[in-house]
Design a protein that fits this description.
alpha/beta; single chain; globular; about 30% helix; 7 helices
Amino acid sequence: MRTFVATAAATFLAVAVASAAIDRRDVDIKAPDGIVLSGTYYWPVPDRLGPAVLLLHQCNRDRQAWNELATDLANAGIKVLTVDFRGYGTSGGEQIPGVTVQAQQKRDAVMKEKGPGDVDAVYAYLASQKTVDKSRVAIGGAGCAVWPAADAAMRHQEVKALVALSGLASDQAKAYISQTPGTAVFGASGENETTGDTSKPIKDLVAASKHPQSTVKTYAGFQPGVLLFPRFPDLEPAIVEWFKAQLIPAAAPTK
């Protein structure tokens, strides 16, 4: 059971997990146009040079959806940055409420125009942390964020691993993955026989990879993105173990 211990700073929490501990703090990151994006940075204690993961949330959630996975990754020795996209959570930018087609189209347009710059800004923040090993960085995305996560892996070719949950990657990202055997892909999605194989985009992305440790997990019934976690409790531990295998080799030096 996790225990959260408050410190003098309201945004700073020490989290005791069994015999290990992690710290986390809320951070503000400026997008290229000046909009402030809200994030949370998690790291293991003691804070040594080590790997890191950027997690991008799906469009019907915010960064809080990653709290448990981020905590478990930090407890496993991996630093994590989660962030609210502009217009979501506590980030700046216009909030576009509603579930109408028009609202979704407007959100998609904002993501297409501003998303790459925003993701690059938060990636740069993560990479700038002095104890982040820039040769051991990964990205994860859920739902609508699979697209920007996969595209970010393409733009930042030092990225070693990509996790994609119930989403669609661009053709350019799939082509990059197919030509880059050093990038491993973990995909997971639900399958719904009534509406067709909703896991096909994830299967296609993983199939494009030539990395020997790329893998895909499919589950009966459609649960988008992080909604897979409560229904299928094996998934989060599997992601943690997979990230550890990609980012923490047995002989990795520590400082």
